Amino acid sequence: MMGVEPIGVVTFAVGVICLLRGSGATVIAFSVFPVLGGAAALMFGSTGIQPGHVFVAFLLLSTIWLHGNLQTTVGIIFRSSPAMWLALLVTYGIICGYFAPRLLQNTMEIVPIGGQASLGSEGTIPLRPVSGNFTQAVYLVADLITFCLILSVASTSNGLRNVTIGLMAFGAANIFFGIADMISPGTPLVSIFPYIRNAPYTFHADEMVAGMRRIIGSWPEASAFAGASLGVIGFSGTLWVCGRHSKMSGLLFVLSSLLVVRSTSSGGIAGLPVCLAILYLTSIFRAGGLSGTRASAAVILVFPIAAISVLFFLALNQTFYRLVYDFIDITILSKPTSLSAIERGAWNAYGISNFFDSYGFGVGLGTSRTSSFAVALLSNVGVPGTFFFLMFLLTSILLPRGVPRTYDADIGVAARNGCLGVMVGALISGTIVDLGLLFFVMAGLKSAIPRSGLTSASVQA
């Protein structure tokens, strides 16, 4: 039986208003709604549909009917190599998700996605169809639609700018919910969270690490909050380095970085240096010449000096060194011996075993839960699905596009680094194949860059 939650009423109301306002408002709102990763707008029995996935319908209506052209949109999609590879991944995932659990039923143990009755002592069940086969197929179809629609919308200069604004608004909303979560105990802010944490998930809202309550924001757990924040860091940090929307992007970058550390998520803290290294490399390529930016030059010069200064300060101040060391020890160094790390290690062990036991074809999309995106790909969709994803990654994100150092190319680099930030978090602690709507919004933005038509004189901060 279907039920509409209060956040669902808000989602539908915003959707109708955006359709009346135009395509710009619709795509901006759509880019923000994925921040509600712990909310359910609609409930079908024990299955919840997130607001972001509901809003896909409004973006679809706006793009192909009210404010767009169906023929143009279809033409853009069919000319896109990334869309083809992603469609192959989704198709194979759905087919494999239906047939593999039935053909290989009871031949191996799996750690299932979704709540399952009569779990074994290690949280396993014999391989069989599970609820995740359906839900993950729905989410991956939504990812494909999202990628294709953003690809079409961002193929115009106004659309590209609107998606960029929407992604910055996503970062601002993620920061707002993170700060609200941090300061909410004992304040009226605590009353907003029951409405945006109503999905049928297990929420880890009151866990303590290193004497601090973990931040989860609008997400089910700290690792999910940190993973989204790493995407914001990659996107906004690159915009700042490239001198685009500098004041806002710089603020989003700094606050998101601080909140990742404050979240005490091991995956987030371990992934943050990788994201910063990506930004440093981006600064090297963006500096110099007439079109080089002051921010990129400052990063290249100041970062090594700042890093050396911090090391000297820690060496000379034993009290502060001990505080920093204890925090890193609790969140990262001692993590492999914790009960949760042992459990997640077991998930990966079963996932790798499922990959080999299925002869490399996978046990089906949405069947097996793991603790790393790479293992999730191999165990769920096997070699074929992994190949399709890698080709999608290469053609949509990694290949350079556009005229270097123009506004559109800089937005593309920011979208690429944002996608890499999401992937860094997923490779460390991702449990499923679905990387989330945020990833595919940025991937669509990156793929659309060559057709944006913007010039280097456009939109400086």
Protein model, in words:
The protein has 17 helices and seven strands. The longest helix is centred in the middle third of the chain and has 27 residues, at 157-183. Mean pLDDT is 89; it is low at 451-461. By secondary structure, the chain is mainly alpha-helical.
Unreliable residue stretches? 451-461
Largest sheet: 3 strands, antiparallel
What series of H and E elements makes up the topology?
EHHEEHHHEEHHHEEHHHHHHHHH
Q: Multimeric state of these chains?
A: single chain
Q: Residue-averaged pLDDT, rounded?
A: 89
Main structural class:
mainly alpha
Strand content: under 5%
The shape is globular
Secondary structure tally, helices: 17
Q: How widely separated are the two ends?
A: 49 Å
In brief, what are we looking at here?
This protein has 17 helices and seven strands. The protein is mainly alpha-helical and 461 residues long.
